[in-house]
């Protein structure tokens, strides 16, 4: 079963002009680049749709229908995308004409099925594509739909005249899938008629082809006007930022031993005991080190600074933090915030909180308002509650480039 994707990108998209000053819009002060070639997330909108179909394992070939004046623009984004991508064909003055041009171009070596998709829907995903393909196993046409959830009104001359019953009403999306020969025959039959068809399913309905409804996708929104581009850009930028977001957690505990001060968060706090352990036993910086390493999946403090290595005996724990920060930087990472909770019965943390936050902020190169530090007791429960030691938990958030 051979499946072709036909992407319609021949429109002018005048509703999506944006402030600018290109040669095309010099007189109006607007950039009149056709919307399918405008940038979203660092790439032309059309390229997102092309990649969605080219990368899909069930799609064998991809054909794009373009405006006759857009060949140079198209060539820039099509080069090297995929071996599945066929040379573009020129469309007509109406969407229906453009689809027919694409179907005729495929007719020389016809596929079994064709998916017809609007370039203005850049967020089509593989699951939706597959649902349409699967539906064509048992029907001649497949239409992705979503229910109408808003209340619908009919108006005349700006005055609301009627509330429309939305029961049974659906929002149509693309890709719309068809058995190839049947939809080609329908388009040929509809050529030259004075009727207006806004999508391919309506042509199939007019021709008498059964069209099955399949589940659409809320993410598969159509980008029509300038406001849509703002939302689409925010969506893609948000996805990129989230993709680079990493969260790490760390925990450390040390028992008390002889001494007259404890080191917490790089600050020496007078006390009638000290924490026992390798290095200076700073549980706060140790927990933070593990959180940093955990965020990038790079082991823990014991892997990089084993207790058996005597060179770290009594070491300032800032050494461990700086090494972890270097590892984060090597990955292109940036620290966004840190949060620490100290668990102990004594000493009192409150008088030293600001000093510890300041030192941690200095080590992590953060503003102090991005460092949280809290303390709590164990209410007399367990080893910490009996005053036998101090524990710390830390969480950090980083963003990888």
What features would you highlight for this structure?
single chain, 401 residues, alpha/beta, 60s Ribosomal Protein L30, Chain: A, five-stranded mixed beta sheet, 21 strands, elongated, isoprene biosynthesis
Separation of the first and last Cα atoms: 41 Å
The CATH architecture assignment of the largest domain turns out to be Alpha-Beta Complex
Range of strand content: 25-35%
Helix content: 25-40%
Biggest β-sheet strands, sense, barrel? 8 strands, mixed
Counting DSSP H or I runs of 4 or more residues, the number of helices is: 12
- CATH-defined topology of the largest domain: Spore Coat Polysaccharide Biosynthesis Protein SpsA, Chain A
The beta-strand count equals 21
Radius of gyration: 31 Å
The CATH C-level name of the largest domain is Alpha Beta
Q: Name the CATH superfamily assignment of the largest domain.
A: Spore Coat Polysaccharide Biosynthesis Protein SpsA, Chain A
Count of separate structural domains: 2
Note poorly predicted spans: 15-30
Q: Structural class of the helix and strand makeup? A: alpha/beta
**Outline:** elongated
Summarize model confidence as the mean pLDDT.
89
Site (Positions MEP for the nucleophilic attack): 166, 222
Binding site for 4-CDP-2-C-methyl-D-erythritol 2-phosphate: 252-254, 278-279, 300-302, 376-379, 386
Cofactor: a divalent metal cation
Family: Belongs to the IspF family. Belongs to the IspD/TarI cytidylyltransferase family. IspD subfamily.
């Amino acid at each position: 079963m051979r499946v072709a994707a036909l992407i319609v990108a021949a429109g002018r998209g005048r509703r999506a002009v944006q402030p600018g000053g290109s040669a095309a819009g010099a007189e109006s002060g607007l950039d009149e680049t056709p919307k399918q070639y405008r940038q979203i997330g660092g790439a032309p909108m059309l390229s997102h749709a092309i990649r969605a179909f080219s990368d899909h394992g069930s799609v064998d070939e991809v054909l794009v229908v373009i405006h006759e004046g857009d060949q140079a623009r198209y060539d820039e984004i099509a080069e090297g995308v995929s071996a599945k991508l066929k040379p573009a064909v020129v469309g007509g003055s109406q969407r229906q004409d453009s689809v027919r041009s694409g179907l005729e171009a495929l007719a020389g070596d016809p596929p079994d099925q064709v998916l017809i998709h609007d370039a203005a829907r850049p967020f089509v995903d593989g699951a939706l594509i597959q649902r349409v393909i699967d539906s064509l196993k048992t029907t001649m046409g497949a239409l992705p739909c979503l229910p109408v959830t808003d209340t619908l009104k009919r108006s005349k001359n700006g005055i609301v005249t009627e509330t429309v019953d939305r029961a049974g009403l659906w929002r149509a999306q693309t890709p719309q899938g068809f058995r190839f020969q049947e939809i080609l025959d329908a388009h040929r039959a509809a050529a030259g008629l004075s009727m207006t068809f806004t999508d391919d399913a309506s042509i199939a309905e007019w021709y008498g082809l059964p069209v099955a409804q399949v589940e659409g996708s809320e993410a598969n929104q159509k980008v029509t006007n300038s406001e849509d581009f703002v939302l689409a850009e925010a969506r893609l930028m948000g996805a990129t930022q989230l993709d680079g977001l990493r969260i790490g957690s760390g925990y450390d505990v040390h028992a008390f031993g002889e001494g007259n001060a404890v080191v917490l968060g790089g600050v020496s706090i007078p006390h009638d005991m000290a924490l026992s352990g390798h290095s200076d036993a700073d549980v706060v910086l140790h927990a933070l080190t593990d959180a940093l390493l955990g965020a990038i999946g790079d082991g823990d403090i014991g892997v990089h600074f084993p207790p058996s290595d005597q060179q770290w005996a009594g070491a300032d724990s800032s050494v461990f933090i700086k090494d972890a920060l270097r590892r984060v930087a090597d990955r292109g990472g940036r620290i966004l915030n840190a949060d620490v909770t100290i668990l102990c019965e004594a000493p009192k943390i409150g008088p030293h909180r600001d000093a510890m936050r300041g030192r941690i902020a200095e080590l992590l190169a953060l503003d102090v308002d991005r460092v949280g530090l809290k303390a709590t007791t164990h209410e007399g429960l367990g080893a910490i509650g009996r005053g036998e030691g101090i524990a710390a938990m830390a969480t950090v958030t980083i963003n990888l480039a």
